[in-house]
Specification:
The chain is of the alpha/beta class. Helices cover 37% and strands 12% of the residues. It contains 15 helices and 13 strands. The strands form 3 sheets. A 7-stranded mixed sheet has the order 1-9-8-5-4-2-3, with helices on both faces. Helix 6 (135-145) links the parallel strand 4 (120-124) and strand 5. Helix 2 runs parallel beside helix 9 (246-257) and helix 3 runs parallel beside helix 4. The protein starts with 12 loop residues before the first helix and ends in an 18-residue tail after the last helix. Bound molecules: pyridoxal-5'-phosphate. Pyridoxal-5'-phosphate (PLP) is lined by residues 55-57, 81-82, 84-85, 126, 152, 154-155, 183, 185, 196.
């Protein structure tokens, strides 16, 4: 089997033709194709408004800035996320507060409740891998404590929470987030190479983000240049340069049209992994939810290290030897030297996230893989585990049936994490 990379994008002829047409059109920056992409994306996620941005990181920063979150304010998020989530909080001068994750690897609402203080202003839940967070509990905490909710939906294009797309909120119950930020980075479910989108139901918030997105000026470039007689603009706030170009929106328009097909293939491949890797006590399959649609952006397995003779890094090396690329999502925020001063405060402890980290491996899962490649990876995982199984002690076998809290014989206590 030739090398199976951890990710490869699915770029079709339609994307290529649209990019070429954009280049020939004479309009390269934010213009008609971005307006079309925003409109079609907003419909796909059932949001009232959408604003295309040049990254999800930019989108998160814009959202916090538009919500006027700044120095002295606290923003609660998860330690199991990409550094961008925390950087956006620091960029507005606010204090990141980390809570712990639940057994699903997503932010734990009970831990959020523990972290709320009079300085809390917002919660940023992250739908890790495409599995929606427990939004009802998060929305309910936000309402009770007057907090904003900004969803980091970098993995969640195509995810549904209780029958509604991430981005729609819960129309029946009137719950919604202030802003939802998506990523179109090269490895994400929908890619424009680099890019992102923010959606909201709140028109004034949209206007504020739209202005901050382009230098804080009163009109965007499209309006300004679209009307050749009107050269006037005013800067009304200290803004940023976060707009998405029409060249990239051209890719996005066609990636969006293929999303449902992508999700279908991802789900089919996830099920193939489930079937092949089920009933292996050394391995835990990714958590799922019966009420939500998973976008299967990532397929994260957890190793039961106490039952194995190898650690996670050796496991990844063994995959590499079999020509398979793998990854880890994520290195917990407290382990990065720059974030350590915030994250290591007693009030930010996240033992469950730190316990999960050395056990997590993301297997390749994307529509550009063939079914044969998925089977090859699944069998390689099985094979590596069988070879690395701790079979020597009878005690270790018995440990399988012990309850979680049971005191186990010395040396195998890590068998049931
Ligand atoms: C990729 C990612 C981001 C950042 O996305 P960009 O578009 O690259 O800025 C933010 N949060 C999470 C969870 C991500 O995985």
């Amino acid at each position: 089997m030739s090398f199976i990379p951890f990710h490869r994008p699915s770029i079709g002829e339609e994307e290529i033709i649209e990019v070429v047409a954009t280049l020939r059109s004479g309009w390269l920056t934010t213009g008609p194709r971005t307006a079309q992409f925003e409109n079609e994306f907003r419909q796909y996620v059932a949001a009232h408004h959408a604003l295309a941005v040049n990254s999800c990181t930019a989108g998160l920063h814009l959202a916090l800035a538009a919500l006027k979150i700044g120095p002295g304010d606290e923003v609660i998020t998860t330690p199991l996320t990409f550094c961008a989530t925390v950087n956006a909080i620091l960029q507005v001068g606010a204090i990141p507060v980390l809570c712990d994750v639940g057994s699903d690897g997503n932010i734990d609402p009970e831990s959020i409740a523990d972290r709320i203080t009079e300085r809390s202003r917002a919660i940023i839940p992250v739908h890790v891998g495409g599995l929606p967070c427990k939004m009802d509990a998060i929305w309910s905490l936000a309402r009770r404590h007057h907090l904003s909710v900004v969803e980091d939906a970098a993995h969640a294009v195509g995810s549904y929470y209780r029958g509604e797309p991430i981005g729609a909120g819960s129309p029946q119950r009137g719950f919604e987030s202030d802003v939802v930020a998506y990523s179109f980075y090269a490895t994400k479910n929908l890619t424009t190479g680099e890019g992102g989108m923010v959606t909201t139901h709140d028109q004034p918030l949209l206007e504020s983000m739209r202005s901050l997105c382009l230098h804080g000026i009163s009109k965007d470039a499209w309006n300004r240049y679209g009307d050749h007689g009107n050269w006037f603009y005013e800067v009304r706030a200290q803004g940023f340069k976060y707009n998405l170009s029409d060249i990239l929106s051209a890719i996005g328009i066609h990636q969006l049209r293929r999303q449902e097909e992508f999700i279908k293939v991802r789900t089919q491949y996830a099920n193939l992994y489930h079937r092949t890797l089920a009933d292996i006590p050394e391995l835990e399959l990714p958590p799922e939810s019966s009420t939500c649609r998973h976008s299967w952006h990532l397929y994260i397995v957890r190793l039961n290290l106490g039952r194995l003779t190898i650690d996670r890094d050796e496991f990844i090396r063994a995959l590499r030897q079999r020509n398979i690329g793998a990854s880890v999502h994520f290195i917990p925020i407290p382990l990065h030297p720059y974030f350590a001063p915030y994250a290591n405060l007693a009030c930010n402890q996240c033992p469950r996230a730190l316990e999960l980290y050395p056990r997590m491996v993301s297997l390749p899962l994307y529509p550009a893989m063939s079914e044969e490649q998925v089977e090859y990876v699944a069998n390689a995982v099985k094979d590596i585990i069988c070879t690395a199984r701790k079979t020597k002690t009878i005690a270790a076998t018995n440990a399988v049936r012990q309850p979680r809290t049971a005191k186990l014989p010395l040396g195998i206590s890590e068998a049931v994490p």
